[in-house]
Design a protein that fits this description.
By secondary structure, the protein is mainly alpha-helical. The protein has one domain (2-120). The chain has helices spanning 2-23, 25-30, 39-57, 61-85, 97-120. The longest helix has 25 residues, at 61-85. The chain is elongated.
């Protein structure tokens, strides 16, 4: 179960910042919104990647991975419900708001799965 969790964390850790950069590319290059507002997805992705690596290579690394999943759940919860409340507004990407909220909802579900499976997973047996 921990191997699945680490793989999912790596996948989401790469895909999330990439999708958000693609979604808001025109805003980033024209600086219509302050650039620090986009760092949350990059930091989230980095935290998931570090957590996935630590879970496989360090004692108690699974705890770091669980913390990264917790951050994703908190971030995705707010993002999903903010997007859901703004279904009548156009999305900066030009995609249909319903599509964006569906993707964010799917991400929230994956975050909860990642959090739960990281908490219940057993530490990998390490041989000296």
């Amino acid at each position: 179960m921990l191997r699945f969790n680490r793989t999912l964390a790596l996948l989401i850790g790469v895909v999330t910042p990439a999708l958000e950069t693609f979604r808001r590319w025109h805003q980033l290059i024209t600086l219509t919104v302050p650039w620090p507002a986009y760092l949350d997805d990059v930091l989230l992705g980095a935290f998931l990647i570090v957590g996935a690596w630590r879970a496989g290579h360090a004692p108690r690394g699974r705890l770091i991975l669980a913390a990264a999943w917790g951050v994703l759940c908190g971030h995705a919860y707010g993002s999903f419900f903010d997007q859901l409340a703004a279904l009548d507004s156009p999305d900066p990407s030009g995609f249909a708001p319903a599509l964006v909220v569906t993707i964010k909802g799917f991400g929230l579900v994956l975050g909860v799965i990642g959090l739960v499976t990281s908490v219940v997973a057993q530490e990998a047996k390490r041989t000296p």
